[in-house]
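Q: What would this chain look like folded?
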Amino acid sequence: MSLVINHNLMSMNAARNLNESYNSLSTSTNRLSSGLRINSAADDAAGLAIRELMRSDISTINQGTRNANDAISLIQTADGALGVIDEKLIRMKELAEQAATGTYTSAQRLIIDSEYQAMASEISRIANATDFNGIYLLNGNLSGEQHDGQGLNATGALRIHFGTGNDSKEDYYDIQIGEATASALGLGLNAGPSARGKSISTQSLAQNALDALNEAIISKDNIRANLGALQNRLEATVSNLNIQAENLQAAESRVSDVDVATEMTEFTRQQIKTQSAVAMLAQANSLPEMAMQLIQG
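A: My prediction, written as structure tokens:
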């Protein structure tokens, strides 16, 4: 290479190497300070796309877990109310058994029937008042087999959504809760004309009411059994969603997070190269002075 003064090629080469080393050092510093291997699309375009999809799935699954837990709370609310209704039904059967015997007068049976009707009214009140977040659970609003969510207020079965898509086999299922009012159970004065549990004011009515109360208790137990099965299913769903989110988070970490040990090695290497390039640039910048010495003689 000739000794020239118009162009310092060695200085230009050293400056280029310094720029490359400094850029690599900046990238390592950015990764180590953020903890991420991918900080922009320029770092890894495909990896960034994969990471963002994983992040969206993780956030969605976490919300799905909260949805499922809310559904568990809803079921527990309904089951608690049905437990109270169970106590009222037991008391009503006890009263029917009392009125069915012949040792009471008609006036006394009317007194017994007044408590019987009060219990029936309380069952209806509980069923109509039990709600979760404004959603009434036992008044028959959720007793429909099909869910219809096209309107502002959904009708039919309650749909619990917990998946990342919209496939009924994987992402949601419907909760159907039967009506638990006294009239729906065939009890009390508001029951249908053919109901056998309307009253226990006579010995014959009281005897018929015993069978009606057995059927009412079975109907109520069917509702509770269905809710218990749904709660177990939701708890299994929550467990599965937690595992799924954990595995997705691990996969996202492998794609996105920086390996600190490896990156620290790269940082040290680029730091040494930068320092070396700075030193060599300083030396290269002084080389034209040799030409001046020759000119000066």
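The helical segments are 9-34, 45-100, 106-129, 203-256, 260-286, 288-296.
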